[in-house]
């Protein structure tokens, strides 16, 4: 399959007004677009989208690697400045998940969200999101920069799936699209959601997230480095993005972080699940 590439001008020309103020750059290869932007935050005057045709050191949540091959995935990071304060940003990864899931669904690929923000297709991971935040040092006004990294599997060559070591999803339908049109659609929705989040926080997005919740009503386990922290029935997220679990002791709320969420049915008894 011939992979159509993109250019900043072609993406910008297809963007909605919500994203016209975003600077765009495309590179053939880099280690990590998130790391690139984090290193440049003190020099930025506005939002910047950085797209890589290939990443050699892509990163996911909790220090995990994001593996890819050239042309098989859409990989980008977006630096965005928020009013802050930092503690108000806890629901941002979930809002980003809503933006991406709604856009991908509008393009003909229905997806669901696994808390906090993995996108699933047919129960397998299609896309990952890594959000890293840093206080804005230049102005000293309490503002916060967020660098939002996204990787979406468009194609999944057998050798890459073998390297990843588990079944993952792909979206060949999206791979057939013009890449600039696809990127513009994602950026336009994402920019609109980020502007709204900056004004309102996560609360207005909670209902939209819950409608996309992959494991609503399913028995799940929260793990921290292989140890069970909580188990119960997933009941969606609250107004600040915490996962609500109905347990035998009542409802509890779980903050995202470096914990992992799994379906109870996939957890081996050797880790102490009763």
Please tell me about this protein's structure.
By secondary structure, the protein is of the alpha+beta class. The chain has two domains: 8-211, BirA Bifunctional Protein, domain 2; 219-271, Roll (SH3 type barrels). It is 24% helix and 31% strand. The protein contains seven helices and twelve strands. The protein has helices at 8-14, 33-38, 92-106, 158-164, 172-175, 179-200, 206-211, and strands spanning 23-30, 48-55, 73-82, 112-114, 118-121, 124-135, 144-153, 219-224, 227-237, 243-247, 250-254, 260-263. Strands 1-2-3-7-6-5-4 form a seven-stranded mixed beta sheet. Strands 11-10-9-8-12 form a five-stranded antiparallel beta sheet. Strand 9 and strand 10 (243-247) form a beta hairpin. Helix 1 crosses helix 6 and helix 3 (92-106) runs antiparallel to helix 6 (179-200). It is globular. It starts with 7 loop residues before the first helix and ends in an 11-residue tail after the last strand. Residues 270-274 have low confidence and may be disordered.
Question: Secondary-structure map with pairings?
Answer:
Blueprint: H1 8-14, E1 23-30, H2 33-38, E2 48-55, E3 73-82, H3 92-106, E4 112-114, E5 118-121, E6 124-135, E7 144-153, H4 158-164, H5 172-175, H6 179-200, H7 206-211, E8 219-224, E9 227-237, E10 243-247, E11 250-254, E12 260-263
Parallel strand pairs: 1-2
Antiparallel strand pairs: 2-3, 3-7, 4-5, 5-6, 6-7, 8-9, 8-12, 9-10, 10-11
